[in-house]
Amino acid sequence: MLVAFVALAISLGLGRAQEYRASDTDVIRVAERMYCPVCENIPLDECQTTACLEWKDEIAAQLAAGRAPQEVINSFVARFGDHVVGVPQDPLIRALTFVLPLLATLMALGVGLRAFRQFAGSKKLRLNAEATGADELRDASYRQRLEQDLRAMR
Known about the structure:
Elements: H1 2-17, H2 24-31, H3 50-64, H4 69-80, H5 91-137, H6 140-153
Helix pairs in contact: 2-3
């Protein structure tokens, strides 16, 4: 009985001596927020290149060392740049990447609306000019000149 107790105590001590290993699920949760350094627009959790496998091992090591997922991502961003996460980490740059396309779209719509209104306004002017031109056709002298020009063209 004493031998069994000592064996149990030793096995428990060895189990505690082994270092903590991050689960695959934890590694995937971090990796899905990052992108492959080799392939373009491939999430890190889906890529199987050597570089990605090394990065996943490094993520697992950092998680095992007790770092939070955001700390792991921040360490990769600090070493390799914002393209690691696909979205700029600086709040000002991040805001600009969302606001500038929206502003450009609104400006394009404004210019298009203004051009449409100008086009519609010029059409009205042409219609008014044609209406006053009809009154002038009734004038006899103008009509006479018009008939002379038409005969000359024949």
